[in-house]
Amino acid sequence: MKERNCAGGGVLSPQEVLSHTGGYTIVRGFLGSFYMSERQVMDRWPGCVRVCAAADMYEPEIVEPLTEEFLTACQPSFQAVRDMLADRLSLDSFDAYIEAKRTARFEPLLPYVVPTQYFFEDPPWTYDDHDVLLDAGAFNGDSIADFLKLRGSKYRRIIACEPDEMNFRKLEAYVAESGYQRIRLLRTGLYHRKTELSFRSGSGMESVLDAEGAVTIDVDTVDHICEGEHVSVIKMDIEGAEKDALAGSGQTIRKYHPILMISAYHKKEDLIRIPEAVNRLYDGYIWFFRCHKPLAIDAVLYAVPKDRMIHGYI
Predict the structure, then answer these.
(1) For residue 98, what are the CA distances in angstroms to 156, 175, 194, 204?
(2) Alpha helices for the chain (secondary structure H)
């Protein structure tokens, strides 16, 4: 690797790092490294005294820490969510996720990771050729790509919402290149009412609502955006604004009981407040929990109406 300036310092080659006597920290910055234990990383890099993850350094507005104090104070609420989970994988994943968040050690998660997020093979629920998918937080089209890989053209419509300008341009390009039809793109965020909000336009997935953000974006409710549509699947990954968006989804959820796929790792209270918010709207869901990265992010709550469950699964 050629040396270059980086934040006032330099970049060392692997050989130069290994030549040091020790005392350095390894930061896991690529996905493959998370499938290695800390011991394996340290064996690979003699002299390493600490292994941490890039996710440990997320800004609190992006991924809020789940502290021991908060876990203790909210233990009955966390237990109530665990008691709702419908299968063994959900229970084991939930326990491993909490342990990983509590200790910052990710090895307990490894046996339970489901690599594809949201639209993975062989879920406990069914899809339908008439499904209408709302992709809230469509990013660059990555989740739509997984949905199309799983379902092909077997859907009625896809509605994709993405407020960040750069991400939206990438989303437009992906949809145009995909050749698929019946995909409606909206450059808007989701919220509990129609308004304009300040927004921090970041790099890639780090765009987030921020009162001090330099950009103003349009936001709207799920109920207004999807008015007249029989929405049957809602995927929601909007950087901590999920609870606000659910507050604007009441009519849609009560009327159509869509499958819900809601990211639950941005805010420390997401795992308990999101099920509470959903159950106030419709209490007939069956709940699942999956982890989609071998670190304590990309944790998703899945709420499935009984009539969409695989027969005999539970």
Answers:
(1) 37, 36, 35, 26
(2) 14-18, 38-44, 68-73, 75-84, 88-103, 142-151, 165-178, 222-225, 242-247, 250-256, 270-281
Beta carbons of 78 and 98 less than 8 angstroms apart:
yes
193-234 pLDDT, tens per residue?
999 877 655 544 455 555 555 678 889 999 999 999 999 999
Read off the pLDDT of each residue in 237-263 and give the average, rounded to a whole number.
95
Closest CA to 288 of 99, 102, 94, 111: 94
Strand arrangement of the beta sheet that strand 195-200 belongs to = 189-190, 215-220, 195-200, 208-209
Distance CA 203, CA 188 (A): 17
| Rounded-to-integer distance, Cα 105 and Cα 98, Å | 10
What is each CA distance from 301 to 61, 115, 236, 295, in whole angstroms? 20, 15, 10, 16
Token digits of residue 244: 């606000």
- The β-bridge partners of 208 are 200
162 close to 207: Cβ distance less than 8 angstroms: no
pLDDT surpasses 50 at 107: yes
Vertex 185: Cα angle to 182 and 188 (nearest 5) = 150
Ramachandran angles phi, psi of 143, nearest 5°: -70, -35
Higher pLDDT, 146 or 205: 146
At 86, the amino acid letter reads A
Q: Hey, how many other C-beta atoms are within 10 angstroms of the C-beta on 298?
A: 21
Determine the distance from the C-alpha atom of residue 183 to the mean position of all C-alpha atoms in its chain, rounded to a whole number.
22
Tokens of 109: 């998660």
Strands 299-305 and 285-291: antiparallel
Q: What is the pLDDT of residue 26?
A: 73
